[in-house]
UniProtKB/TrEMBL annotation, chain B:
Keywords from the named record: Activator, DNA damage, Methyltransferase, Transferase
InterPro entries for this protein: Ada-like_dom_sf, Ada_DNA_repair_Zn-bd, MethylDNA_cys_MeTrfase_DNA-bd, MethylDNA_cys_MeTrfase_DNAb, WH-like_DNA-bd_sf
One BP term from GO: methylation
SUPFAM superfamilies: Ada DNA repair protein, N-terminal domain (N-Ada 10), Methylated DNA-protein cysteine methyltransferase, C-terminal domain
Protein name: Methylated-DNA--[protein]-cysteine S-methyltransferase
Domain Ada DNA repair metal-binding: 199-251
Highest taxon in the source lineage: Bacteria
Gene Ontology molecular function, alphabetical: methylated-DNA-[protein]-cysteine S-methyltransferase activity
Protein EC: 2.1.1.63
Coiled coil stretches, renumbered: none
Domain Methylated-DNA-[protein]-cysteine S-methyltransferase DNA binding span(s) in chain numbering: 109-188
Amino acid sequence: MRVVAALSGDLDGGFAVLYEAYRGPVFSTALRLCGRWAEAEDLSAEAFLRAYRALCGYGPERIAELRPRAWLLTILANVWRNGLRTAARKPPPGPLEDAPDPPDPAEGVEDAAARHETGRELAGLLAALPDAQRAAVVLRHVTDLPVAEIAEVLGVPEGTVKSHVSRGLARLRRLHDQGEGGIR
Amino acid sequence: MSSTDPAADALLAGLAGLGADAPPALLDRIAARRVEVEGPLEHLRVAFTDRGVAFVRAGLDEAEFASAFRERFARPLLPAARPPAGLVPALRTGRLGDLPLDLRGLSGFEAAVLRAAATIPRGQVRPYAWVARRAGRPKAVRAVGSALGRNPVPLLIPCHRVTRSDGSLGEYVFGAAAKERLLRAEDVDVDEVTDMARRGVRLVGSDTTGIVCFPTCADARRIAPSHRRGFRDLAAAAAAGYRPCLHCRPDGPGPSAA
């Protein structure tokens, strides 16, 4: 595999390849787990930095066995959960609307507006899910990971992942319908 | 989960559309950049982050520099297209200007020592004890030596301008010979300073102004030979009715009084 081969050569150059290959999944996951752009940047930066520091201590065999995506997302999930524990002792941050997603310049204005509207609503609904369900739904349907990999990332059995995903989706659908019914 | 349910499909499509690419600046929060630059010493390599210059070393090849950086900062180091704005002029002139430094990872005392050393103007030297007083720990003269030895950004924070009060130039991150070369290049009269210190003269006063300075202070260098008076220390100068210069501050007031 390209990333693993690069990492076994020069660590810094290999890290650049790793970052290019996985910055999208890592940042998307971080953004949808925590719901805020600035916090997602902190979370992703911290995860990549921890990954680099771990790599510094890995021998060639450990690097050869590495499955980079699951490994990186596991680090991210741990950083996120540690942050949740810390955040529980701090006052809550401002509303989600504080940090709207910046528009993608490659997208047409109308498409962007439509995507933004749906995206913002869905992102807001995701925030209403319990942490475990949100993590499973985000990894399955935003990051597009297979169930087995999610089980590895979250350190739970596959059955638990499946039940978190289906309960999370059911809840999202219910929240969405309530929103359309004007209950919101 | 029924994949034929249109509402479910819309929900899944919506979730799939929630991906976002990492902002371009994210990598620079994680990795530092490295450049090789021209400066007063050969083979100068510099590492900088999004916060400022973090590491300067001379005489190391690329691999040695990368491994020294990794050992100290544990952060990825990638090549930079160009040096950060202000770096090359700062190295050429010996003045930092607006160039930001990234001094994360230093202890409070180390940072205070470096801030004190950073105030020594080009072409002048100060004793270790003066830096200790300015850093707020007048008795920690030896610790000042260690803190300067760990200076991550020599040349930019001019630790080569801190010398021993017995007249010898003292240690330097890049070796004593490089220290002497740098000071001579800044027009410090190393021989005169050394000679005076050996004769027990550490301060120079003007009998017309009644002000006493470090010998390399710009004011001290303007005193006509016929009006120069040498002193062993500040107490001797004070006893003769001299007051400390407000530019070179031989009284070395602590950080609060500075």
